[in-house]
Fold this sequence. Notes:
The protein has 13 helices and 13 strands. It is an alpha/beta fold. The chain has 3 domains: about 5-130, 3-Layer(aba) Sandwich (Rossmann fold), CATH 3.40.50.10140; about 140-165, no CATH class; about 170-430, paralog of FGE (formylglycine-generating enzyme), CATH 3.90.1580.10.
Amino acid sequence: MRKPKIFISFASDDRALAREIEIGLVSRKYSVFMSDTDLSPGESVDHKIEEKIRGADGVIFLISKSFLQDGRYTLTELDFARQTWRDPSGHVLSVLIDEVNPGDLPAYLKAVSALEPKGNARAETVSRAAQMWPVRSWPHLAVIIGLPLLAIGAYLAVESWQWWTGPPPGMVKIPGGKFVMGSTSDEVAAAYQLALETEPGLSKDWKWGERPDHDVILDPFFIDIHEVTVADYQQFEKEGAAAIANSQSTEGRYPQTAVTWAQADAYCRQLGKFLPTEAQWEMAARGVERSAYPWGSDPVGGTRANYCDKNCPSTTRDSTQDDGYRLTAPVGSYPAGANPSFQIHDLAGNVAEWVQDWYYRDFYSGRESTDEENRKVNPVNTKQPENTVDKLRVIRGGHYLSGPAEIRAAFRGRIKPDAKLEYVGFRCAMPAP
């Protein structure tokens, strides 16, 4: 299977829509480059952007009024496209947003028909891109090579399909479907009482964001069985020694920590994966049974999770339990705590995990979105908060400093996306057929 390479050009004001389109394309097996998230520190912007556009099968231009303003770097990206393809037909997709008049487009873009979304801009853009740059699979190659090799091509197609429908190495398939996400008022009240056992005087504001419980529908997906380890990350990071120095252990089987959201996102995307959404992460942790913890509803214990036990440096420790580690533990150290349906490890405790979503306290209730359908089917909050103070990314699962209430599968943590914390790591996901 060949993954078409797509470059998305957009103004910074339109980043949220660009990100949604990227997620939609990746779910259809496309390789996507977005300039604001894919540049390494110190890397030449012009050189990298030009290189990616020249190597792409096509470019999607999200044309807004901001895009067309003089001095915008988007116009430089447009020049790179013009230099790469004198005729934009088949290579350029213009998407008009923000009530842009087609007559205001540069001459180069007027040479092709522009997409003017009538409803869901993300879905319509992904659909048009799929028509322009279809994903090619083995059967197409068999036809091109010729009938004498048709049998071989068919065999390879079957083998390829069997491999793809099975989990890639180190991942497990979550079948998707409908499940109930979040917590009821009674569940939140019970969790608050549990938290008070180790942290008396805790504010009730602690549990913001879990309510209401609500139906969510997810497409099938794969997710990593283990958190990304130091050894995994060292292979990805050119300056591996510097990255490892920021982790609590240089031993390969320990989780990689002290990475920003962007670094975690870049790692996953380099492998053709992505950070799981909140909904994907919670479904993997709870399943359709809606259990409080990945292993079920039984209380936390030292054999199930690395959390704030008697070894914990925090004053809120649970002195009745011993999980064997003061800080992080090697991944997979608590098989009794794995989800019995999927056998995914360390979804509770050890290190908290970055997910795709920006944090909004009321995202579940929909008060931050007018797109009700987007909150029900494959929901992900890509809307970046306007207030700098509120620009927080969601982390899930709790960590070795967390109490029993904070490693529940429904608990929503949040931190600044540029934070490098010794108790935050990540795992990756990818679409499944």
